[in-house]
Design a protein that fits this description.
With 263 residues, the chain is of the alpha/beta class. Helix content is 42%, strand content 18%. Helix 3 links the parallel strand 5 and strand 6. The chain has an 8-stranded mixed beta sheet with strand order 1-2-4-3-5-6-7-8, with helices on both faces. The chain has 11 helices and 8 strands. It has one domain: Alpha/Beta hydrolase fold, catalytic domain (Rossmann fold), CATH 3.40.50.1820.
């Protein structure tokens, strides 16, 4: 793993593999850079892949006080450390970080966002009771139960997709990161999405969504479709919030097809 310093001095780690145009991957809640292992090999055949550990997990550092804005700066710092224009791909919470990072760097060639949890018209689910229950489970030594509760209630992951996540090799890493999940459940409720800030974001953007995803995630994609001036939408029919696990070949095909398109 390599590291760079973010704006606040926190060390952000990433693993660099493959050859070709740079592709930065930003994982979602509970994950780390290993969440991409199921799709990374075919991406590496076409791109130099930079798989980030977001702050607080893996080999990245953290800060005493958590602020969502620091995550935006972390992603932008990695992008800016690369000597040529970058393709930035973010999933879920990582997609929110990537969307905001796109306003903080001039080093992007393309942007791929898979269901960022932005709240549109108060569509984001109520999470106060869920967080209380997660904290109680975590304090009682039941980290895995707290993680499953998050996936079932906040992320609204269908049973088949949850089974796929639990069967992946990085599931123990997710359980170990439950302390970061709780803060990431709360952060989107405090994030105010202002569409006017993105009206000039002309970076070619692919918006990914699952037909079976939670309604608030679909609403977020529809909002971005109307706001971002240069985008197209791909819906993974029959899949939800983690098609890279339930349909990895389809996920890779759609991403690579977009990357091959002329800007």
């Amino acid at each position: 793993m390599e590291t760079i310093s973010s704006v606040d001095g926190t060390q952000i780690a990433y693993e660099r593999t493959g050859h070709g145009p740079p592709l930065v991957l930003v994982h979602g809640t509970s994950a780390d850079h290993t969440r991409w292992d199921v799709v990374r090999s075919p991406l590496e055949e076409h791109n130099t892949v930079y798989a980030i550990d977001r702050r607080g997990r893996g080999e990245s550092g953290d800060a005493t006080d958590y602020a969502l804005e620091r995550e935006f700066e972390d992603v932008a710092a990695v992008v800016d450390s690369i000597a040529e224009p970058v393709i930035l791909l973010g999933h879920s919470y990582g997609a929110l970080c990537s969307l905001e990072a796109a306003l903080r760097t001039d080093n992007l060639s393309k942007l791929v966002l898979y269901e960022p949890p932005i709240s549109v018209d108060d569509s984001y689910p109520e999470t106060e009771d869920v967080v209380t229950e997660m904290e109680a489970l975590y304090d009682d030594g039941k980290a895995e139960a707290a993680l499953v509760l998050f996936f079932r209630t906040v992320a609204s992951v269908p049973p088949a997709e949850l089974d796929a996540l639990r069967g992946a090799p990085n599931w123990p890493n997710r359980v170990a990161a439950v302390n970061t999940v709780i803060r990431e459940v709360l952060a989107p409720t405090r994030y105010e999405f202002d569409p006017t800030r993105f009206e000039d974001l002309t970076t070619p953007t692919l918006l990914l969504s699952g037909s079976e995803s939670a309604p608030y995630l679909k609403v977020a994609i529809e909002e971005l479709r109307t706001v971002l001036p240069n985008n197209r939408v791909v819906v993974f029919d029959g899949h939800a919030h983690a098609a890279m696990n339930t349909a990895p070949d389809l996920f890779v095909d759609e991403v690579l097809a977009f990357l091959r398109e002329s800007s």
